[in-house]
Amino acid sequence: MITPEADPHLLRLGLSADFTAEKLRQAYAERVAELPAGSAELEALRESHNVLNVRLRRRLPAGEAVPPPPGHQPAPKYVAPKYEIYDPAAHDNPWITALGPLVVALLAYGVVRTPLGFFMEGFHTWAHEFGHATVAWLAGHTASPLPIGWTNTGPKTPFVYFGIIFLLVVLAVAGIRERQVWPVLIAVAILPLQFYLTWLQPEHRYDLWLAFAGCGGELYLSAAAIALFHVRLPDKFKWGWCRYLFVFLGAGVFTKSFTMWRDIRQGAIPLPFGSMVNGEEDAGGDLNILQDDYGWKDRQIIATYNSLATACLIAVVAVHLFFALGLDRRLRQLIKRDAET
């Protein structure tokens, strides 16, 4: 008798050679719930279920070919219905993957370039404050980003450090359960960065990054919001629909910040010294701190933020091309093939 390890159908459904009809039904139902409609894995699972179902009725030895019953007609190939093919929440549709974020980003760009862009100012300010807060949180400090142009930061505390770890572990576990690799990669990438910023980074360096991350957060957080459109997150996040809102807001914020630093480089507008709360004369503004406490010259500030803006733009384009060209699907197929061999 061939062992389950040598039988691809038993292996795919996780069954032993003496499986019963109830075990076959349960194994099939559990695995179907984890797979998107129309995927290659789902087709393979259906094929294995059909083969094992016939084998169950005939009780042939595991691994032995099952002859089709008299008059048997092969099941027609599954075709996803139109509402699934054109479902904007779908992650596997190549047209939505290629055009969805572009259309939403162009819409956001158009809004920002019109008087309606006034309504985006609040999100732009919040992205700035979340830039400060993300550095504080990753360094173990308490922080409260407020949409009025102010972020309260507090001392370093284990509660923040282990709270972030807990959230990252929850994200990774949810990704593992739903067989989504990107949540796991995101968590694995952030954990060592958090450890360094909390325990190894000098305190004066933390203050520098905290000041830098205001204008920096407008760029890298908005770029991340756009790039996350392509990442399949656990179903609990309802990311299939929410990602459109994130792309719209991220593209609006990124467009405004990218344009601002380009205009500053060209001399069209001055550097935004001061702060929103206390005005241009506030010596505690982010750029004032970089200049007065850390000796950054105007040229260094302008060059650094423009370089960051360009790097974020290149990263967003690279991520979009990676998914739009289907390279992520090819990578999953290679990983699956290596796992089966």
Task: Summarize this entry quickly.
The chain has 341 residues and is mostly helical. The chain is built from 13 helices and 2 strands, in the order ααααααββααααααα.
Word description of this protein:
- The protein has 341 residues and is mainly α.
- It has helices spanning 8-13, 21-32, 40-58, 82-85, 94-112, 121-138, 158-177, 181-200, 203-227, 239-265, 286-292, 298-324, 327-340; strands at 141-146, 150-156.
- 64% of the residues lie in helices and 4% in strands.
- A two-stranded antiparallel ribbon has the order 1-2.
- Helix 6 (121-138) crosses helix 9 (203-227).
- The two termini are 21 Å apart.
Strand content: under 5%
Helical residue percent band: 55-70%
Output the strand order for the largest sheet: 1-2
Low-confidence stretches: 78-83
Shape: elongated
Q: Gap between N and C termini, in Å?
A: 21 Å
By secondary-structure content and strand pairing, the structural class works out as mainly alpha
Number of helices: 13
Radius of gyration: 26 Å
For the report, how would you describe the main beta sheet?
Answer: 2 strands, antiparallel
What's the average pLDDT? 86
